[in-house]
Amino acid sequence: MGVLIIKALVEFKKETNDKELTENEKTFLFSLGFEYQPVLNDNKINVFENYIDINFSNKYTNLRISYAEDNVYYLIRIYDLLEDRIFIGKILRDLIDEKNKTFDYLREPLKIFYKEFLTDEEKTHAVKLANELPKYFLQDVLSFKDIQSNIEEMFSFFELMYYTTDGKFRYNDKAVDYLIAKNKYNIHKTFFKHLRDVLLTYQKSAVFFNNMKDLLIKASPYFKEYMKNTPNQLS
C-alpha cells in the first residue's frame, strides 16, 4: 500500500504546471509521499545526509529514490521552518512530561505547515489538487480484488490527507468520477454492487465512508439502490 500513491505523486508533479502552484502548495503536496516510504529511516532526525543509501525494497528502489531526489527539498523546507518547534521544543517537552509516545516526524510537520503556513486560499486549492491524485493511482477494475485495492488506496490517501489538513479534506465529485471510470466489468451493475460491498467494510471509518457513500449515491442510481437495500448502514 502506498507505492501507487508515490507513483501518482511523481506523475502529478510531471503534469502540473508550476504556475498553478504556490511555493507553499508545492511544499505541502510534494512532501506527502514521504509518509509511504522509509525515506526518513524510521523517523530518526539525522536522516538527510545519506537518504539515498536507505535500504529500500528492491522492487521499488528506482521509483522511491526518484521521488526522494525530486522532493526531499520540500520536506527539508518544512523542517527548516519548524525546526525549533518540532525538534528542540517538542522533544524537551516530551522528556519533561515523561511521555513515551514518539513524535511523528512526518505527519506532524505536514499538519503544522498546512495549518499555519498556507493561506485559506492555498488550503482550498491544495485540497482541490489532492483530488486529482486518484486519476494517477487508481487501477483498471477487472475483478472484485481490483475494487478492494482501489478503495484501500483511496482510504490510505484519505486518512493521510484528513489528518494533515486538520480534518478538512474530503474527496469531491472528480475523485469519484475517476473511480467509476476505471470500471471494466462487463456488467455495470455488478461493479456498483461490489463497490457497495467493499465500502461497507469501512463503516467504522465514518468520515471516509460517508464521504464516499454520498458521492457514489449522487453519481450512480445503481449504487443508490444497493445502499437503500443495505440494512444497518451508517447514516
Structural summary, described in words:
The radius of gyration is 19 Å and the shape is elongated. The protein is built from eleven helices and no strands. 63% of the residues lie in helices and 0% in strands. It has helices spanning 3-15, 23-29, 61-96, 107-117, 120-130, 134-137, 144-164, 173-181, 188-200, 206-219, 221-228. The chain has two domains: 1-130, no CATH class; 131-235, no CATH class. It is mainly α and 235 residues long. Helix 1 (3-15) crosses helix 3 (61-96) and helix 3 packs across helix 4.
- Please tell me what the overall shape is: elongated
Number of strands: 0
Radius of gyration: 19 Å
Structural class: mainly alpha
Number of helices: 11
Average pLDDT over all residues = 82
Helix content: 55-70%
What's the helix-strand series? Answer: HHHHHHHHHHH
* Most strands sheet: none
Q: List low-confidence stretches.
A: 39-59
Strand content is: under 5%
Query: What separation lies between the terminal Cα atoms?
Result: 29 Å
Number of domains: 2
